[in-house]
Each structure stands twice: as structure tokens, then as C-alpha cells.
Amino acid sequence: MDKFEGKVWTFRDCIDTDVIIAGRYLRTFDFKELASHVMEAEDPEFASNVGEGDIIVAGWNFGCGSSREQAPVAIKTAGVSLVIAKSFARIFYRNAINIGLPVITADIDANEGDILTVDVDEGLIINKTTDTKYEFKPFDDEMIDILENDGIINQYLNNRGK
């Protein structure tokens, strides 16, 4: 996997899927439309200000609530390269991996606007703003394969017949 570098957006504990993408937007199959409303309930300006490659850093239980796959889809389509949280709701975690959005469980100190470098293979996060390093358990080979194929469906399609 690649290394990631991006600006940090911080969010509190227990960000649920209704906060990530409100139910009223779930009637669309247009991923860009979903992304235009991502995190709207928590930060109305997030979708218009997030940049390609930016990183979400959150507290405990990120993605709790319903099992809607649109939540990680909206985050990824908005340009977020990965999400780091102290913990994730199990279904959100798996939905994120399945659509090719890396999610890392780690307890790090980062402020909004900090710049992080994340080496997924090494299990290393470096806060370049504070020059602080954090370790996390790297993904296993199966998860890396899913993420490198940009999701589980592509992994299947690319690996069938092998």
C-alpha cells in the first residue's frame, strides 16, 4: 500500500452514520451528491472545505448507528484518504474496507489542520506538525489486497481465475 499524507479534520466520539450522511440524502445513487452532504450535521462547511487526500481523526465508536454503506462512500467520495479513530463500529469498519476506504484504529493526538503522514505497511503515523509518531497494527494481507483493489468487489473481479 501507499503512504498517505493529508490535512487533519477532527471529530468527536460517537459520530454515527446519521451524522456522516443524513437519512434524507439516501435516495440518491449519485456518490458526488452524497459527498456534498458528508458530515453536514457536525460541520456544515466540511464538504465544501475538505480536500483530496485529507484525513479524518476521530474519537471512540466512529460510524456507530445504522449499517448504511453510504456513510463510508460519502467520506471516500468527498476526497478523504483514510479515517483514524480510537475505535470504530464493527459494521462501519467492514463497510469502509469493503469499498476501499482505509480505516485505522489508533489513539493519536492531532489538531484540526495538522499534517499527518501514514505508512500503512509499516503501521506508522507521523504528525508532521508536532513531530510525534504513533504505531498501529498494520493491515493483514487480505485487507491490503482489498484496499489495493479499491474494494472487495474489485478484488474479486481482479482476482477471479487466479
Structural topology:
Elements (H helix, E strand, L loop, with lengths): L2 E9 L5 H4 L10 H5 L10 H4 L5 E4 L11 H8 L4 E4 L4 H9 L4 E3 L9 E5 L4 E4 L4 E4 L5 H8 L3 H8 L3
Parallel strand pairs: 1-2, 2-3, 3-4
Antiparallel strand pairs: 1-5, 5-6, 6-7
Structure, described:
- The protein is an alpha/beta fold.
- Helix content is 28%, strand content 20%.
- It is built from seven helices and seven strands, in the order βαααβαβαββββαα.
- The mean pLDDT is 95.
Tell me briefly what this model is:
By secondary structure, the protein is an alpha/beta fold.
Across the major sheet, the strand order is 4-3-2-1-5-6-7
Task: Tell me the number of strands.
Answer: 7
Supply the number of helical segments: 7
Poorly predicted segments:
none
Q: Order of SSEs, N→C?
A: EHHHEHEHEEEEHH
Relative strand content:
15-25%
Mean pLDDT: 95
Which descriptor suits the 3D outline?
globular
Radius of gyration: 15 Å
Structure classification = alpha/beta
How many strands, what sense, and barrel or not for the largest sheet?
Answer: 7 strands, mixed
Distance between the termini: 21 Å
Keyword list:
7 strands; seven-stranded mixed beta sheet; single chain; globular
